[in-house]
Amino acid sequence: MSDQPPQPKDGEPRDAITIEQARASDADIQQVHAILLREKSEPAESNRPIPIWLLLFVGAMTIFAITYIIRNSGGLEITFNKAALVYDERYTSAMDTGAGPAKPKVDPLVQGKKLFSTCATCHQGTGQGVPGVYPPLAKSEWVNGSEQRLIRVLLHGLTGELKVEGATYNGLMPNFGKGGGYNWSDENIAYVLTYIRQEWGNNAPAIDPATVTEIRTKGAAGRNKPWTQAELEAIN
Amino acid sequence: MSEQPSTPTIVASFKPGARADIAARAELSEIDASTRAPLMLFLVSAVLWLIVGTAFAIISSYKLHSPGFLGDIEWLTFGRARTAHLNAVIYGWATNAAVGVAFWLMARLSRSVVRHGGILLFAVALWNIGVTIGIIGILKGDSTSVEWLEMPTYATPLLFIAYALVGAWAVITFRYGKSKHIYVSQWYILAALFWFPWLYSVAQMMIIFAPARGTVQALVNWWFGHNVLGLWFTPIGLASVYYFLPKVLGKPIHSYYLSILGFWSLAIFYNWAGVHHLVGGPVPAWVITAGIAASFMMVVPVVVTGINHHLTMIGSFSALKYSPTLRFIVFGAVNYTLTSLIGSLMAARSVSETLHFTHFVVAHAHHGMYAFFTMVMFGAIYYILPRILLREWPNATLIRTHFWATAVGSMVYVVGLSIGGVVQGLMMNHTSPDGSVTYTVLQVVEATIPYLFSRSVAGILITVGHLAFAVNFFWMLSKKPVSQSSAPTLFRNPEEMELAAK
After folding, report:
1. B20 falls in which pLDDT band (50, 70, 90)?
2. Do A144 and A217 share a structural domain?
3. pTM (two decimals)
4. What is the ipTM, given to two decimal places?
5. CB B285 to CB A74 under 8 A?
């Protein structure tokens, strides 16, 4: 063979010549390269420009995305102030009433009934208590009487002899208020008391959580032991 | 010749008249040979995991319309079999194949032989031991129950070490490369090799090892879950498309500038997109809005890349009749465009409301992972294996079976389950005029059964394809290297495509 590589005829692939006419007559070389030689060259890139309409499309997408963010940002401001707490993308700062997140509306009787399941262990679901052991709540003068006394019983507990509906009991009512074993919130105490004052034929006015808070923080602030009947009767 | 190889090679025995191209090919031959051992280990494990993963897929799919099937075997209950399927195909098949193919591409494009291949062999072994332990752990009941991160903590550190070794070796291969130009495939591979360990380690730390509190876990989980697809498998898949399209066709990629735009827009936007899975969840509205906007912006890289590939392909569609590699790659590339556009649409709040938490999402995940990524990997393996084994694929009919079974199977899967998902979503959200929910859960489930059944049919088709592939693969391993110049195994042979398409 001459040094001049054979020229392919028109329409005849160059690589085919390389293989078929065996530039190197050495069979080993051909063997190693048989598969490699028929490959096309390693890939390359042309430098054709990006079509202008494609750039316009990219621009349109960008504007669309920015508009989307602005319209659905859920009140995001540069300072990230409240947006971290806003879960509705339609929120804007114009809707902010300054009241903070709205609290869910609670029906005291529904919530109170749930909480009462704890009380029912002793006072029973019927509110009748257990004769001689746990005093009844239904028709009880303590439950339907002074809210000042009733709230104190729940907040701090009650010990010693107690006369209810003519019968005498001697047990221990645990404390349910903040810091106590049950650590109920003022709201929960108000709810459960409202419930027992309006169930089983009882018909006393509802109790406001604010009253509970006032007694806990002012009226009986610092109290850390259960009340007795005598102490309670001293309060109006 | 423009450049002499550093060591005397067979090229030296060529006559002075040899074309420079021959030198380049001899160099490729050396590079291919250096990748042979680790690459074969990657690919053999990948194919074995593919079979294992497919078996679990069929079991899980069948259980969804016939819940009693294998129902009393604790290790094969749905929660474990489905999870084993996911981990076997993601960490077993797809990652093994991705790393193998990425390594081969990286070595070739950097024009760099793989140094100290033994350490890579060690890394592959470690990776596969980790995956095996992880899947046995899942079947045994030790799953962490965090989606995409189910493997128990006694398996994951092994995976991380193995991956770190692979990543470091790829960077070394790149650094020692002789190529001055960095081809687009290399951008994607380098980026993916950095992104995956970042995602994996952050997610493992913030969810499993030192859990963040509350909804942050959910955020991290979806950031990870979505990014594994978009910042690990997608870049490797696209790197393969960018290499094999021009390689098989013998013409350059249409535009370097489109490649740049496509790469950087993917890099910038994808990372944000996963949050759209939390639409309606207890996550600040602006975070989700940002995720949705980024999902919309993903249209940019997808359209740009799609156009770049299409304009490269245009005028050469007849080559699809011959080349298995090209047919798998083009099928994958087309589905990349489709699944990504559907994905951007699914991110919108109004669409997510109906489609999220339905089978539509499952169909979409398989559209991306299977019809795009897995098909591209098949195409790549059909091209690579003859080069590193110096053997031809034994049987064209098996390749044809593989293509048609998986192509038809995956389309039946995606279309059937997508329709099922829409039906499911509409029924779940449907309310009567008085505001109550119209359909009971059981009614919704019963309405989806035909679509779930179509998935099992699709699964069987896909299994047939995988078996054809595995038979061809292991048959090829048992063959002797070709001793004569041989013809490639093509779908048909009127004018040997790879030789004649110029």
Report:
1. low
2. yes
3. 0.76
4. 0.84
5. yes
